[in-house]
Known about the structure:
Layout: E1 2-6, E2 12-14, H1 35-44, E3 53-57, E4 62-65, E5 69-77, E6 81-82, E7 85-86, E8 92-95, E9 100-102, E10 108-116, E11 150-151, E12 177-184, H2 193-201, E13 204-206, E14 214-218, H3 226-229, E15 241-246, E16 251-255, E17 258-262, E18 269-277, H4 283-288, E19 294-299, H5 302-315
Parallel strand pairs: 12-19
Antiparallel strand pairs: 1-4, 1-11, 2-3, 3-10, 4-9, 5-8, 5-10, 6-7, 6-9, 12-18, 13-14, 13-19, 14-17, 15-18, 16-17, 16-18
Amino acid sequence: xxEVIKSGLETSIQDYPGRMxxxxxxxxxxxxxxxxxxxxxxxxxGNEAGAAGLECQxxxxxxxxxxxxVIAVTGADMQAKIDGVDxxxxxSVALSAGQTLEMAYAKTGxxxxxxxxxxxxxxxxxxxxxxFHKAGVGGMGGHAIQxxxxxxxxxxxxxxxxxxxASARPQxxxxxxxxxxxxxxxxxxxxxxxxHERFLSTEWKLSAKSDRxxxxxxxxxxxxxxxxHNKLPEHGSDPANIIDQGYPVGAINLAGQTPxxxxxxxxxxxxxxxxxxxxxCAFWKLGxxxxxxxxxxxxxxxxxxxQKARDITELCSEQSVA
Length: 322
């Protein structure tokens, strides 16, 4: 249905919520990093909100339509054009057979999303079409799309000219600074109060050594409670070591002195503490942050995090489309 002329930079098939329920088998949930943008793109073209689309990072693809369809581009602004003519973001647009959708580099944000009427119809693996690159599952043969491949799309009916209301869109940071919500735990009692204050008052730099498995943060050293220093040998010698435990998705994993946010393709367990966790409602911010941009963290309750997630889900519906 969509012939890949240029692949972009690791453009991959992702859906929402991803591959849920298989962490015990070593398969993370994967899925769209900015699911808010993907879900709205799907609503625009008449799909279920969680249908599979394309996640483009930094540089988008060039795709040629093999039949008439309707598309929507959301998330990062990758300067989308059809046959050389600019098209609007956050709006459904007709793409006729033989026409070419071209995307360039991300002017704002990091990850752009392309939804196609009918949804991408690649094979499912463990209930999801999402690509998990490191295990080679999902997506197109387990990997990002490649030049000369044809991305399969199911039949569907879309209407051009539908727009997402401005109030329903995620607001991408224009000043290269993101305030990201976190909840405390599960191992917040291993960090002393000066350590907590330092974490929450620091503007952490997002390292270039970051990917869909983990976001490394650059900043000051951490300090620990007595519990981290006076512990049984099986917990390891470093204050940040702990006996192997399960990691929540979004855990801020303290590998020695380096905090790594375990994101969509992250590991499910290991031997480091997790003083904080980024909840689902804030994942879209991680998905749109670029290396060298600054992240500040704000503590909220689990109940507030759950309500924020529900609020986003409510926006990812027909009520947000005009």
